Amino acid sequence: MNRRRFLQTAAAASLGLLNLPVIGRAFAPSELADNSRFDIILVGTGYGSAVTALRLAEKGKRCLMLEMGMDWQASGMKFSRMAWAEKQSTWLKTHTIAPFGNYRVFPKFTGALDRIDFDQVHVYAGRGVGGGSLVNGGMSVTPRRDYFEEIFPQLDAQAFYDKYFPLANRELGVSVMPESYYRQSAYYQFSRVGEQEGCAAGYTVQKVPNVYDYDYMQKEEAGLVPKSGLQDEVIYGNNHGKKDLTKTYLKKALATGNVTILGLHRVDRIADQGDGSYALSVSQINTEGETVAQKTYHTGHLFLGAGSLGTTELLLKSHAEGTLPKLDGEVGRYWGNNGNTMAARAGLKHALGSKQASIPAAGLAKWTKGDDAVFAEIAPFPTGVDLRVALYLVINRVPKYGQLGYNAAAKRLELAWGKEHNAHMVRNAGQFLDKMNAANGGWRSTIFPKGVEPKICYHPLGGCVLGKATDAYGRLNRHKGIYITDGALIPASIGVNPYVTITALAEYCIEHVYQQDFA
Ligand code: FAE
Q1: Distance from Cα 131 to the centre of ligand 1, integer Å
Q2: Is 5 helix (H, G, I), strand (E, B) or coil?
């Protein structure tokens, strides 16, 4: 051990900092002690945070990222398959929390997939370095321009479609599955049947780009490499093939040498110090979720990227507990589930195949100007047998917003979201199923009530909306030095799977914030 490393290690040991789950080399262990001050702290390591960290770090700014989930790469653990979920599948619960089939039990562990339950909606989220990119289906969809303009009338759409969406797609490593492979793969029979049936029912087929490496997938099918997307891996993480954020934005950010990520570090509270700085109460947890250390970190530049619910909760909770007294009433508003509704048909005439890839490749659209607009992702049902059941994740508009609040007495985040918010989604998804059945045969499956389940939300959006709770570039109202970077910026709906939009918005915001606040 060289002298510098020896001194650092000795200092770390005296401060009780050994065994810190540290990634990256921006800060020595001794600089991570309790009560340390950092120029920049980012909360979370999902899309918003990863983009922001890269753009700051490549300009030479040192960034500390705090992530409540694990560093999966360093852990050496494998992600679970869906068919045989183990403890690492699920965030601190004793059983699985998938949309259905939750018969597996295990000890609590800081696993990859979390679910936050409200009365009429169950919100799924990824946990770990990489956030939602670890558990999502990799569907990388740029929104329709007319809908983007409807949701964000104040933004320069031309700039987004010329610059920020292409940039986001490039950095994320998005590609379209080669048609030749799609047409002949046994694993995409379900999707080809879905397209054919959708056309017959009058829907427009839309190919869906993805961040899955299709060269790898073709090798999977040829039996040349370990299977992942072709072996029911997705919502608990992919062991191969998927370019999650640890292989794209976060990898580049760490390579600058200006980023350190602390895994298993949960930010519990933000306190306005009144001098332009913020004190964060942080709990370091172990893999059973128990607190093993508590510390306070200080910063003048706090970037929140804890996801729609995580970011909004941190702000509302800190306000309710009196440490962020000036919080704007706009925080918590314009929340929505991106219109997510699961739908299922049974009794299909055509075989869907006993082999089904877990990575979706196409969707069916009828995106009208009214509340009946739908975009239905043709989802796999990879059970290993062909049950002739077709699944869809239907995305709808969100005409009625939800509102988040924090109940200080009960110490929990609350959401005003009732059956009335879901009503048009249930109607639309039901009509979609009925049209598909009328054109192709089949009936509404009983895996969901009348074939439709509106409580499943994979795409939480809103709570700190751009231009409402923030200025034009994500700076939180009334709080100089706090920035929102994530899905909380989007008001309730974007009409397609959202992370390309979240990435593009984060690129846009940090470009302007850097020029105005850091350059
Ligand atoms: P996100 O990626 O959720 O990252 C937030 C991070 O902050 C997480 O790592 C948290 O662990 C961490 N965190 C939260 N609270 C704290 C705290 N207090 N202290 C420290 N760390 C904290 O945020 N979208 C698509 O576009 N295409 C898809 O195919 C797709 N499929 C999905 C499938 C599933 C099963 C799920 C759950 C989601 C899917 N999504 C998909 C949604 C997408 O993953 C989601 O919109 C983004 O991940 C949201 O990005 P954010 O940056 O907002």
Answers
A1: 5
A2: helix
Residue among 24, 502, 35, 65 nearest 302 (CA): 65
Nearest to 390 by CA among 338, 427, 351: 351
Q: Quick check: 483 and 301 in contact, CB under 8 A?
A: yes
Q: Which two tokens stand for residue 306?
A: 């804890």
The pTM (predicted TM-score) of the whole model is 0.97
CB of residue 67 inside a 6 A radius of ligand 1: yes
Return the pLDDT at 101: 84
- Atom 25 of ligand 1, nearest CA residue: 497
- Indicate if 377 belongs to the active site: yes
State the closest ligand 1 atom to the C-alpha of 44, by its place in the atom list counted from 1. Answer: 7
- The single residue of 377, 421, 424, 479 carrying the catalytic annotation is 377
Q: How far is residue 206's CA from residue 195's CA, in Å, rounded to a whole number?
A: 9
Distance, CA of 377 to CA of 208 (rounded, Å): 9
pLDDT-flagged residues of the chain (< 70): 1-19
Catalytic residue list contains 459: yes
Query: Which contacts (CB < 8 Å, 24+ apart) does range 239-243 have?
Result: 239/78, 239/79, 240/216, 241/212, 241/213, 241/216, 241/217, 241/359, 242/133, 242/138, 242/211, 242/212, 242/213, 242/359, 243/138, 243/172, 243/173, 243/211, 243/212, 243/213
Is 331 a pocket residue for ligand 1 (Cβ < 6 Å)? no
Whole-number Å distance between alpha carbons of 490 and 487:
6
- If 0-12 CB within 10 Å is exposed, 13-18 middle and 19+ buried, where does residue 84 land? exposed
For 406, the token pair is: 């924090």
Query: In whole angstroms, what is the distance from residue 140 CA to residue 142 CA?
Result: 7
- How much distance in Å is there from the Cα of 455 to the middle of ligand 1? 18
Contacts of 142 (CB under 8 A, 6+ apart): 161, 165, 169, 496, 500, 501
Which of the residues 301, 459, 479, 507 is marked catalytic?
A: 459
Cβ proximity of 266 and 293 under 8 Å: no
From the CA of 282, give the closest atom in ligand 1: 19
45 lines ligand 1 (CB under 6 A): yes
pLDDT in tens, 369-389: 999 999 999 999 988 999 999
Render the burial of 203-241: b for 16+ CB within 10 Å, e for the rest: beebebbbbbbbebbbbbbeeebebbbbbbbbbbbbbbb
Instruction: Using the atom order of ligand 1, give the atom closest to the CA of residue 124.
Output: 37
